[in-house]
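To assess whether the prediction recovers the assembly geometry, we first specified each molecular entity separately, as shown.
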Amino acid sequence: MNQFISVEDVPDINHLVDLALSYKQLPFKDSSIGRNKTLGMLFMNPSMRTRISTQIAARNLGMEVIVFNVDKEGWQLEFEEGVIMNGKSAEHVKEAAAVLGKYFDILSIRTFPGLINKEEDYSERFIQQFIKHAGIPVVSLESATMHPLQSLADIITIKENWVLPSLSGEGQGIRRPKVVLTWAPHVRALPQSVPNSFAQWINVWNETDFTIVQPQGYELDEKITQGATIMHDQDEALKDADFVYVKNWSSYNDYGIVLCSDSSWMITEKKLEKTNQAKVMHCLPVRRNLVIDDEVLDGAQSIVVKEAGNRVWAAQAVLSEILRTSEIKNR
Amino acid sequence: MNQFISVEDVPDINHLVDLALSYKQLPFKDSSIGRNKTLGMLFMNPSMRTRISTQIAARNLGMEVIVFNVDKEGWQLEFEEGVIMNGKSAEHVKEAAAVLGKYFDILSIRTFPGLINKEEDYSERFIQQFIKHAGIPVVSLESATMHPLQSLADIITIKENWVLPSLSGEGQGIRRPKVVLTWAPHVRALPQSVPNSFAQWINVWNETDFTIVQPQGYELDEKITQGATIMHDQDEALKDADFVYVKNWSSYNDYGIVLCSDSSWMITEKKLEKTNQAKVMHCLPVRRNLVIDDEVLDGAQSIVVKEAGNRVWAAQAVLSEILRTSEIKNR
Amino acid sequence: MNQFISVEDVPDINHLVDLALSYKQLPFKDSSIGRNKTLGMLFMNPSMRTRISTQIAARNLGMEVIVFNVDKEGWQLEFEEGVIMNGKSAEHVKEAAAVLGKYFDILSIRTFPGLINKEEDYSERFIQQFIKHAGIPVVSLESATMHPLQSLADIITIKENWVLPSLSGEGQGIRRPKVVLTWAPHVRALPQSVPNSFAQWINVWNETDFTIVQPQGYELDEKITQGATIMHDQDEALKDADFVYVKNWSSYNDYGIVLCSDSSWMITEKKLEKTNQAKVMHCLPVRRNLVIDDEVLDGAQSIVVKEAGNRVWAAQAVLSEILRTSEIKNR
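The predicted structure of the complete assembly is given in tokenized form:
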């Protein structure tokens, strides 16, 4: 694996999932494969889970980690080609990426979309330019339109929480779990990266019955959701769900716009009644009583904290795979 | 020891002091007891000594350390129960603490008081909610009303600097040192955490004659100061003092208010004349010529830098004790 | 070596250069000489290359590293003597430096000039006060008027890139390379630290023919540039150059002022035609098409990324030398 930007970089999802689960059992079993290697972590935007879980993952593999908050500890980068740099940007990504490629062995980057220009965001030009100029493996810590470390952790969590019922002899293990990704309200315009990425991974993984439900106008990019059942009636969609993945996103078609703030889309205990005692997932941070209510989050069906815990093992599997198989020459 | 929030968490102060002093002699004697363990350090507020000394302490024990400036690298946390989170806070402490409890083995937190609502600050609800939801040992890096790592370092410093005179045969070692905590002026409204904590530890330690002196209206919480001699005449209080602990704080009764800016409360050489060549202590940062004057801080009686140096050994003793004796299951 | 503030601290430049190049070949050959030692890195100002390359260098030597963004994670420091600290500064450098001297084994500091008061900036009082009060070796990560880690990397880069042609039998190795430091335009008033430092090091190194060219009014301090050929005609100066070091700086005589924004001083392919196929250097960050144009930076003559890569080995040589030879007692 030479980079980790989307599911397309992954030859075998289940291999990564199994590797991650093996690290969950034995976190330090590969504690020397990253020896004398340094992971650079660049943040253009805030981060808690990704920031911390990836640091722990790298250290579990014996890697050094250097965190660089580009926006706060450095200066604004320029991504336009050919521009006369007499404005706010002090350095072009061409130099920044090339230099960081000299310093680090793996470069990881978080960068949010502007949510103004769809074409620009979906070209992923920020992270693509880092890839182009760094010359070392690049790992997305969430980019403009994708969040693959989250999606890998999500699949790990589904696999982990779906295997268990089968052991209880109820026969659930022999059917595919029904997974429903549902839009939920929020006060701000949020990126589509988490739902995009979840949809993409679930589709490629192809081990679930997958439904996406959202209000009219919130449909995601068809190229990404293709293969999923697309619905607009939340109650109908939730019926018999085994996993409910809750997430707000802004409109893809009416790009970056908040079209709906209908609080009836919030996930409540009542809504879950029609599910198959569905486990409730969310990438976090979650705004309580706006996206999901207290009762659900504090109840037994919520696995959001377990899911966040799995971020460590997802990141560890990805870094391990890159360290062991990347054909990109370091330094 | 399962947490370190106040002196009440400490079974035996002198045991911690002796452990700290042993680390001062041999910093790396326990350099593998923290192996494969990670200390999370969360800052809601600025910090220099606490931030750096605790990192060094953890590394001396072989622990990994991850620093997270919540306010700058993350987002605002919500601490209210049951609120509809449609405002500025992006994540509830319930999720944040629970997730961090998955990632770290010990969680340490700095959080200042609001100094507006006394009941809220003295309930210590911020740090208490982290304790409740993290499920791992929590160490205070200064909370709304207490600063126990500072107080432990203070007692180490008193013990260290009181033992020496006894060796000179002057017999000072066989009497209890007189310790005076004195209020001093400042331009801002400061928390009561350092004086509260110092008073609490000195009282429980019970190896000194302890006096607290402050202007009328600056009396600290009686439940905390009980056992100390309370005075309002600084000159009278300083008489025959062996240690003078200088600190500003805002009013406890008139909560968070600056009632007095009388510069005659500043500690000067002249003031120290009536003491028993008292050693002068302060937690730092100290505003020169406002709280303590240059002559004292640059003179032989000031031990503020030694005191700050002891912060490493205090933190190392606390982390070591938690690593070895905590009954809270990690991860 | 007890400190690294300017070339005057270096007994033998070529020894440092050779040590650096040996680390470039074998980064981990001295990976235990920094064991149980901690490098403190204090940033008063932003930094990318210096911040990251120095961290990697220290880790390569087995040192612990603690980064402290004084301006963002701490508070404002006071550098004036005798002042009543009732303003914005919360701590005096006397305490801050003395305490950090207790915590760290080597202290490194980045601090920019104010560019308002020449005498104050050129007294280097900020870093000098840290040296005075810390009591441990101090390394400049760029100070008000000097950037010695950059200059050492620059000389490494010149040596590395000058040796190669001689191997091709063209006989270039037996003459001294012609090095030209040229001013270039910028939109902001920048410090003189990089050109000062480069001039100082190149002069002391004394293995090149050295020319400095700038518009009228941009002459640097004569005490520093003495020994170099000083010119004002860029085309004339560039003739037969082997290395062109490009950099903007604000006026020294008209202190801190931008006197010229003549875009004809920008380095372009056309300008380089008169050189001896000169290698183009810049400390970075560089504003494209303002200081140097795209064609040059993207072309074969630019060695700015290699130069930045050498920052690791320069820092590693300096830290190694201090660890092995400093007579200042740590802690």
